[in-house]
Amino acid sequence: MSHKVADVFGVKSTLIKSYIERDAVDEKFKGALQDGNEVIVYGSSKQGKTSLILKHLSEDQYVKVECSPQTQPIDIYKSILRQLDIVYVESESSESASEHGGKINAGFKIKIPFLGDTNTTAEVSDKDSKKRSETTKYIEYNLALAQDVSELLKKFEVSKFIVIENFHYLELSVQETLAYDLRVFQDHHLIFIVLGIWREANRLIQFNGDLLDRVTEVPVEPWESEDFLRVIEKGEKLLNVDFSEVKGQLISDSFDSVGVVQEICKHCCILAGAENPHTETIAITQDILNKALEIKAQEYGVRHIRNFEAFVDIARRTSNQSGKKSLAFPYYFIKLLLTHKFENIEKGLSRAVLLDEIRKVHHRPDDVRSGDLGAFLHNLTEHQIAKKIQPPFVDYDRGGKILKIIDSSLYFFLKHCDREEILEDIPNPIDD
């Protein structure tokens, strides 16, 4: 049986055929689905979070909500209801006081027919069913309250897992709200699986300490060299190709990113002609690998250079608007990324190191204060989302005060690009 290269190797939204199970990840995830806790799957981009879901859950076992920067908790809950075919009508009441003394918007209130027969009660708004609508009783639920949402899902005997993807795109206040809601859902045995791009443990527990024993965290990193070898070997058998000459360099040049390994393998196979029918084993040579590395460096380069320029652009406008007040942190951060020792970037940069290194190159070093840098770092994700940098390429861990790269392809790009040349092309806001 012949296989398409794109089905065996590469990064895509469906499960790739060279997927391998890892005990530290797959077994932990399967166990997490059974232990009754909420599940948090985290790691850098393109490191296997979505694939983990696709491997171990069939489509009829879960509903999935994709988050965006505009998503609010009520949007998530309404999406869940729609996907579960739970029919509801919006409440007609204008607004009412919440249990905390504030006002609850009418959009949060919905009414569910008292009888569970959603198909027939869906006709309530039709003129022909006027007589029926007069006798239908409703129960009102407030989607601003996790308790009400839980009761509603239990009423309809929902047993599916609820997958929340791209959790990191949500505003910080929304992430905090959901961290508290997860505590309530866990009490009602409703299992949410949260997928997010970050690299430190206990991200949601920082928002709500009550989650400490109520969530099971499944980090998809690190990937070991042996894991990559198994990925390549599985693909070799399916496509009848041989990577033995270049396996070592391919893995080392991918900097612990399975996404990069997959993409380089895919391009190697395409360049070698593995798409075409063949009976003899095709050898992947050094020349083929070099060409594949060059292709990926160019592809990643276009995206990352655009991200760097977008990241700095807001500083240029700020500089123009506020004159001497601008400290241009975005520009100096990118400058540091393109000049600092690669080994230190891989390990992560502490806030203290960032402060010291930025002062060394800043045009007004005496004005660079720890508090100003802290404010910039705390808004790092929002800054990237506002500039449409998706996925974010860097994240700041407030707990550990460490800045880490979370786009797994960025290490590959930084190692293969001419960093000085790229820095020269990044507009310096101080020159404007």
Topology record:
Blueprint: H1 5-8, H2 23-34, E1 38-42, H3 49-56, E2 62-66, H4 73-83, E3 89-90, E4 95-97, E5 103-105, E6 109-113, H5 118-121, H6 130-135, E7 138-142, H7 146-155, E8 161-165, H8 172-187, E9 192-196, H9 203-207, E10 215-219, H10 225-239, E11 241-242, H11 247-252, H12 258-272, E12 282-283, H13 286-322, H14 329-339, H15 342-347, E13 349-350, H16 351-361, H17 370-378, H18 380-386, E14 394-397, E15 402-405, H19 410-416, H20 419-425
Parallel strand pairs: 1-9, 1-10, 2-8, 8-9, 11-12
Antiparallel strand pairs: 3-6, 4-5, 6-7, 13-15, 14-15
Approximately what portion of the residues adopt beta-strand conformation? 5-15%
Number of separate helices: 20
What best-fitting shape do the alpha-carbon axes yield? Answer: globular
Return the average pLDDT rounded to an integer.
87
Secondary-structure-derived class: alpha/beta
Q: Roughly how much helix do the residues carry, as a percent range?
A: 40-55%
List how many beta strands DSSP finds: 15
What strand order characterises the main sheet? 2-8-9-1-10
Largest sheet: 5 strands, parallel
Distance between the termini: 61 Å
Gyration radius over CA: 25 Å
Enumerate the spans where pLDDT stays under 50 for 5 or more consecutive residues. 93-104, 116-125, 127-134, 315-324
